[in-house]
Amino acid sequence: MFNRLSNCHNSSDFRNLAKERIPSAIFHYIDGGADDEATLRQNTKAYENCDLVPNVLKGVEDIDMSVTVMGQKLNLPLFFSPTALQRLFHYQGERAVGKVAEKFGTFFGISSLATVSIEEIANSISSPKMFQLYIHKDKGLNDSMIEKCIEYDFDALALTVDTIVGGNRERDFYTGFTSPPRLNVGSFISFATHPRWTLNYLLREGFSLPQLQDHIKQGTDITISVGEYFNSMLDQNMDWDTVADINKKWGRPLCLKGIMSVEDAKKAVDVGASAIMVSNHGGRQLDGSRSPFDQLSEIVDAVGDKVDVICDGGIRRGTHVLKALSVGAKACSGGRMYLYALAASGEKGVEKAMGLMQDEIQRGMKLMGAKTVQDLTRENIRFR
């Protein structure tokens, strides 16, 4: 394992190692997007249309990569976007990612569909904590998650607003991915050819979704695809009044995850959000939608002085972070950038992946002549 991990120097390397080490259906769940996956590809490709313009002779031996997001000081302008079902990718799951977030002094988020509990994360991880809330039809479930986050002193609530219905994730149809994994001929063969993953999954702590298990069985005791889960379990009547009500109950920094238009960004300000994540759910919902980076400048221009704008999606390199910060994002976040590493090698993989990103951001800032994140402005970039 160590030798293989030592050969991982970028996100593509972690992706290739993950593909070798975990069953096909689970890899393609991480890797895939909606429909033709055009938006999935564009999320990263968008950064290629922007060039950095460095300044030199700035005396950059000591630089400061820290930012303040939703009142929390982060040691670097990048954090782990909350993602579901991490126990399926590696037996260490969210515990591994949380420990790495703690080491790097950045936000760590868990999902409503996390495989560890709010209580455990609160008691074991000291870095700033974010909870990603999916609004379910079961109002008791929604209230339970919000109340637990208040009780256990989470720092921010990220309300996901772009999953009114599930995206058309065709790879999941081909592979038969479900939560929990369904055993059939295809999955049996894949499990058998990945014995390390299979033994860890079967012989270690059982798979569960602690936030949900006292309210609904789907996803833990009843197998279901993610698309089916969104379509049947989530509240399709959620609107801006819903957001305002949640903000009153929560009473702490609220982030809306999945904002892609200026109109919605302005409404987020009106309902009292502290931050927005410019995000298209990693290209897994509406295929053909714009990339977060392509939308970033007009959203920053509209509300950047009123809320913290976070660029979420397509981040694979430290230079992508620098470009988003130069446009005006307060910070960046991502999922696949660490999920490939988690699937490949657990905590060690995530730590190396984030270490590489930190090094790239630091090196890039020095090459840009930027001593602080605030030194990165639109003067430093040109769009083709």
CATH architecture: Alpha-Beta Barrel
Q: Order of strands side by side in the largest beta sheet?
A: 4-11-10-9-8-7-6-5
Number of folding domains? Answer: 1
* Rounded Rg: 20 Å
Q: What can be said about the biggest beta sheet?
A: 8 strands, parallel
Distance between the ends: 42 Å
Quote the beta fraction: 5-15%
CATH level-1 class: Alpha Beta
Mean pLDDT: 95
Low-confidence residue ranges = none
Helix content: 40-55%
Q: Could you give the count of β-strands?
A: 12
Write the H/E string, N to C. Answer: HHHHEEEEHHEHEHEHHHHHEHEHEHEHE
Q: How many DSSP H or I helices? A: 17
Give the CATH topology: TIM Barrel
Question: Any idea what the CATH superfamily is called?
Answer: Aldolase class I
Present the secondary structure layout.
Blueprint lengths: L1 H5 L4 H11 L2 H8 L6 H8 L4 E3 L14 E3 L2 E3 L3 E3 L5 H4 L3 H12 L3 E4 L6 H7 L4 E5 L5 H13 L4 E5 L9 H6 L9 H8 L2 H9 L22 H8 L6 H11 L3 E6 L2 H9 L4 E4 L13 H12 L4 E5 L5 H10 L3 E4 L1 H33 L12 E3 L1
